[in-house]
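Running log. JK asked me to keep both predictions on one page so they can be read side by side. First protein, sequence followed by its tokens:
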Amino acid sequence: MNITRLHRTIGVKVGHVQVGGGAPVVVQSMTSTDTADIAGTAAQIAALATAGSEIVRVTVNVPEAAAAVPEIKRRLLGEGCTVPIVGDFHYNGHLLLTRYPDCAAALDKYRINPGNVGTGVRRDEQFAMICAVAREHDKPVRIGVNGGSLNQELVMHRMQENTDRQLGRSSDDIINDCMVESAITSTGLALEAGLRDDQIIISCKVSRPLHLIDVYRKLSRATRQPLHLGLTEAGMGIKGLVWSSSAMGLLLHEGIGDTIRVSLTPRPGGDRCEEVYAACELLQALGLRAFSPSVTACPGCGRTTSSTFQELAQRIQGYIRERMPAWKREYEGVETMTLAVMGCVVNGPGESKAANIGISLPGTGEAPNCPVFIDGRHALTMRGTYEELALQFQGLVEDYVSSHYARLEAAVTPSA
């Protein structure tokens, strides 16, 4: 399935990655480390990139963070990690970028929040200072408007106008329109400050799905700039996933959104990479990108009182994530592979036949046989313990990858 990109945008280069201009939708994420912690931040950036993040943003809020950025970039490049790094600036970005030119040079993009640049005349001056640095270093910027930090002068002016003219508009509608107005006005200021059209990306992030849909539909009609799409402060776990995907999925299906982040609140001690996996799965579910082999798995019912199929599905999903970085370097098209781990005879054989490799485990009271299908044909029947089944199935996956996908030239060692 191909979704037509209805929002025709200008292409913007962020490092070696193009955003907009007909390029595939790009996955982004953000570190949660103290950027002054060079080793910790570099390690998390590398982990996010390995998980599938194609652009990573870091907080640059204090001099120590700005001073650390060049060394973080050097360490990553030394490890072969070329993921573009974005600096997230609030309140003092104009000072940090001018006082730490090595930071400005090392970053691949600057994120500016118009509501947090300053007030009155100083806001425009300080915004122009950041644009001047971007112009000097030929860096793109993201003009990132947030509902929680919207320019209050603009909001109060529009609220008063609504009252004086008896327009009867809700406060939510006014705030949504203010976000779009702030983004468009700030884009105009950036162009006046000397930035090119192909140096500007826009976002207008809110925390409610219906508001996000409203804002981005309006934004897509008002500009040709690439749009960074995301539901801010989406929340934890299931809530964050459902709220993000309900709004972002609809907008992406309408062709709106050129780069995305799923802003999940991780569990204490949780894995920051979960938000990357979520973004990749969202794009893959819509047929916009393919990042990794997909696993169809049985949800379970009264026929599947054993947990074996659940354990096997979880293990295979983890195995794929572990092996995918190497497969991606070595084989072309492996991300399109499909697998199925099913729990009983009702849908098991049918779903297994529809996958490249599928296994149908026995349900309660069924014979202890596990038919395996490869490209729709019954290839073998497995029996044994869970560990034996898991190892055999992983072996089949490895054999399928090596025999069905072309080796990339860079992965072929020249003969002596």
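And the second, directly underneath as requested:
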Amino acid sequence: MYIDKPGSDKKRPLGIPAHEDKIVQLAINKILKSIYEQDFLDCSFGFRENRSCHDAIKILDVYLSRRNINYVVDADIKGFFDNVDHKWIMKFLEHRIADKNLLRYIGRFLKSGIMDEGKFHKVYDGTPQGGIISPTIANVYLHYALDIWFNNFIKKRCKGQAYIVRYADDFVCCFQYEDEAKAFYEALKNRLSKFNLEVAEDKTKILYFGKDSFEDRKFKRA
């Protein structure tokens, strides 16, 4: 079915699993969470126990108000759930899951296809929004494609402070220096393309935001 997309006249596709699939997905989702909860980084929020959007906002407030942050990259991934690459997610899962039967079940869910107005359509990419297992799949995908890369590569190469806060497929990256924020944005486009993802450039922007920008605006108003 299709639901209204806030702030747009477009519709968002919502995949509703069959009743039997819901039961199996619920069981598999519990297994995945028990495996990956210990792996996910502290920057990851959303669809995790006691890590809500409010918790993400709280830690972002700490970075912006108490750390030396002056530039924010407000990023958006274009059609993330529609473009999750099945080959990549299966490779990611194989890092931690050795049970071939479990992996086969997950693969079947990804490739099960959809019924739209009585017609069956095959799917080759993506994981349906509305599927019980989809949010955990999304977190696993971005854990490897984004979170680890930012913390182990981007952050370590920055001379200034750098932080990321991610809620599901939405994320904000904070930097002390403008040139490092710009360099990250260019690197992000290349990184996401490797995993069949794309930055929504009309929704992604670099903002002068933080302690220095606040003081600058106070000075200009004065």
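Observation for JK regarding the second prediction: The chain has one domain: 15-220.
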